[in-house]
Structure formats: structure tokens, C-alpha cells
Amino acid sequence: MRLCGRGRLKAALIDLKTERNRRIPNPDQVIIAGAGIAGLTLALALANRGFQVQIFEKSATLAEIGAGLQLSPNATRLLDRLGVLERLKYSSVEPQAICLQDGTSGEKLLHLPIGKAAKERWSAPYIVCHRADLQNALLTEARSRPNIAIQLQSAVTHHKADRQSVMIRVQYHDRIEEHRAALLVGADGVWSDMRTAMFDTDRARYTGTIAWRSSVAVEQLPESFKTLLPAGTNVVAWTGTNAHLIAYPIRSGQMINFVAVAPERQNGRRWDIQINPEGVSQNFIREFAGWHQGIRDVMRVGRPWTPWRLLEMKKCRFQLGDRLLLIGDAAHAMTPYAAQGAAMAIEDACALACALGTDSTTWSSALAAFSSARTQRITAVVRRGALNQLAYHAKGPLALARNILLRNRPVEKFVKGFDWLYGFDAEERKPDT
Ligand SMILES: Cc1cc2nc3c(=O)[nH]c(=O)nc-3n(C[C@H](O)[C@H](O)[C@H](O)COP(=O)(O)OP(=O)(O)OC[C@H]3O[C@@H](n4cnc5c(N)ncnc54)[C@H](O)[C@@H]3O)c2cc1C
User: Fewest CB atoms within 10 Å of the CB: 107, 120, 126, 182?
Assistant: First the structure.
């Protein structure tokens, strides 16, 4: 099409405006790499504070990857404020208790009330759900906000920050797009490209342990396994030498989600490799060979088992510069022994939005304060995870001592020991750990 004089002038003005926009970003413009739990939560929390948010997600669809998640009150209070908890109402389950049992004898060791007790003590519910249900709830809420744009099939491949802004390159189909923003947040998960681009040797490390994940329809549970279950709807953990098994209901209570954690040398980096019960590693079978019959039976009826290597990052990294940040697994992938990975991603997101939304401080000091407070909190949570691992996988006299302690210590003392974790409000920015 040929343009006349006025048309050419108009086109030139548009070009100039576009160029200017590319160079001088709106100070409220934030770009997020990754539409996982951390990225979507951050988008919502920022949108609530008037920011313009653009999310780039490398996957073509936000598929049903992952399995069950436990979301403790420190996470659900934040999801509630974002309008997401309401969206999870029908797919999530609110268990009545967390129960610990011996994996060999089936003996009941501890019954920790949550349900109504969690809401009374920590002012928010303890829920369990499928990761996909949480991601869908976040996504639906994000799509309802005019100031959030989500572009799929778009991998953030390169970034360069100066004092004013950050330039971001995005691979969209077969072309490279260039964008500018006031801030780039890497919420790109455990394999974070943004982290490794800056700290090549600082990748997540394999812990030598695999979480085997599966789910079984309630009506398919073997009778021998049902005899092990305490009455009611619960999160149940069975402890054993070097291994443990966790079970809880998901998908409105129609399925039971299983996570069996055991040592293993090999495996890939995907969440979606499925292995039939007969095809699981011999190591896995060996680890649970001496366990209670009910547990061995349920492991055979499971739908395909998905192996997931447990990774952790030795160093927690939030701030990469004044214009670059990491949150969620990209900042601090942790083992699941405290069941806090997604909860920490949610806390990071809300705390960051809070820091950026504060008028009284400068951007740079707000980010430094955010980074320091979150590092303190994550360190405490990682420490709790290590303690849980020790307790779950204890053997010999240590296992004996653990069982005596769990049986005899007043439940109130265990409950009190969770106050710092579940009672925490990330938006108040008080790391009382
Ligand atoms: C066995 C197991 C059990 C667990 N159980 C629990 C539990 O009970 N409770 C709990 O709270 N947590 C649990 N977790 C942890 C939890 O699943 C994670 O911590 C959480 O999903 C992290 O969220 P995230 O947003 O940081 O990363 P993710 O949810 O992994 O999202 C990262 C996103 O970034 C995208 N991406 C990657 N690279 C790019 C790029 N270059 N450009 C654009 N997009 C990109 C990815 O496609 C992905 O969508 C468990 C983990 C495991 C392994």
C-alpha cells in the first residue's frame, strides 16, 4: 500500500512513538518470565497495585503437569486476597489432620489437627489440590485483569539491564521480539535460564532422591491400604528407612495423590514421563519391599508413576540487579520435605509486589529489603525441610527415638512449632522466623 503525505507523516509519528516506548518504558511496566505459580501470583499481586504486567511463557499451553500440592495457611491467606482461593473451592480439599504413621507396622504416631483448627489458629485454611487446578485458578483470575497480558510460546532468551530499564529478547515462534520494561522478574522455575545466564555454575543440584508421584481413584484403593487410613480426610505420611510416602485427596476428593520419596541415581528433567507400576525402578521397589502390605498393594494399583528428581539450590538468589529479580524455584528451588515450594513461590510474589508498591522508599532500597527478608525466611524453611527429612527417613535407634517423641509429646507443642511457618503474613514483611 502506498501512503500519501499525511499518511506518511502519521506513520512516522507512530514509528517515533513506538521507538520512544521501546527506549523509555513506563515505570509501572513489569515483565515476568514464566507463567507458573510464582509468575501468575506476582502478576495478580502487581496488577492489584496498578502495575502493567506482561508475562512471557515458553510453553504453548499451560498443561496438566505436576501433581498434588499442599497449601498451608501462609499461602492460602495470600491466595484469598487475590481472589484465587474462591476459585479453588470446588477442586481443592480441606483435610482435617496431618497424620504420621510408621511405614512398616502402620502404627499411628501423630495426629495433628488442621481443618477448623488451622483456620482458628492461623486465620486461613490448609488445603490440598492438584498443581494444575491452582495454575488454572491463577490463570483465570489473571485473564480477567485488563492490566495483565499473557503471551504463550514465548521464551525469554536474553536480557540486558541499564540503570533505567531492561531490554528483553523473546523467542516467539520463529521470530525474535524485543521489549523494554522497568523490571524483569524471572519466575522461570527450577531450570531458570535467567539464573544460569548470570551464574552458569549455580544450577539446581540433584539431591540423589526421587519423588515418585501417582494418583489412585478412591474406589480403586485396595482394602489392605484402607485399613491403614485414619478416619476422615487427612494428609497421611508414612515414615521409613531412607524413604517416605505421603497420601492426600485431590480433585474434589475423588483421587488420592501419592508421593513416594526414595533414593535413586538416574532420571531425566521432565515432570511428564509416566511409568507403569510394573516399570518403576528396581531401587524404588526395593526401598519399599519391607513396608506394610497395604502400602505395597497401593503402589501396584497406582496409575502410571511419574519420577521427579528432587533438586535444590545451595544459594538463594533474589536480586540480580536493580532491574532484574528472581522469585520462586528460580531463586531457591528446595526439597519438598516441608511441603513449602509452591507456598514460598506465592509468598515471594506477594512480598515483592508489596515492596514495589510502597511509595515511601526508593525502588532500589525496596528491592534490597525484599531480598534480605525473603532470604532469611527461605533459609528457615529450608532448615525445617532438612529436619523433616531427618525425621521421616530415620533408621535404627533414631527411628525408635522419633516414634517415642511423636507418640508422647503433647500435640499442642507440635502445633505451636508451626506458628512461625503457617502464621506468617508475607505482605506484612515481618520475617519473624
Ligand atoms: C515431589 C514434589 C512435591 C511437591 N510438593 C509440594 C507441596 O506439597 N507444596 C508446595 O507448596 N510445593 C510443593 N512442591 C514444589 C512446587 O511444585 C514448586 O516449588 C512450585 O511449582 C514452583 O513454582 P514456580 O512458579 O517457581 O515454578 P514453575 O511452577 O515450575 O513455573 C516456571 C514456569 O516458567 C516457564 N519458563 C521456563 N523458562 C522460561 C523462559 N525462558 N521463558 C519463559 N518461560 C519460561 C515454565 O514453562 C513454567 O511454566 C513440590 C515439588 C515436588 C518436586
Answer: 120
